[in-house]
Design a protein that fits this description.
The chain is mostly helical. Helix content is 79%, strand content 0%. Helix 2 runs antiparallel to helix 3. The radius of gyration is 18 Å and the shape is elongated. This is Asparaginyl-tRNA synthetase.
């Protein structure tokens, strides 16, 4: 069993918090008050793509950290 560096795993928390805030903001913008705004409609349409992009960044960071840990164990 491998031990993981908690510092490297904690680097992913800001991405998680941004995605959570985007999800909450999306639900807030779905209220009836913003129903007539075209800008809000476009922002809500782009929201899943932005979240998907952040997930890709998080996966790349995790893969890089895993690769770094593997190279540290090998040397």
């Amino acid at each position: 069993m491998k031990n993981h560096s908690s510092k490297k795993e904690l680097m992913l928390l800001p991405i998680l918090l941004v995605v959570i805030l985007m999800c909450v903001a999306g639900h807030f913008l779905l209220q009836a008050n913003f129903q007539d705004s075209n800008l809000v409609e476009y922002m809500l349409a782009a929201l899943p793509f932005a979240m998907f992009g952040l997930v890709i960044v998080a996966f790349k960071m995790a893969a890089k950290n895993e690769k770094d840990e593997q190279s540290e164990q090998d040397s």
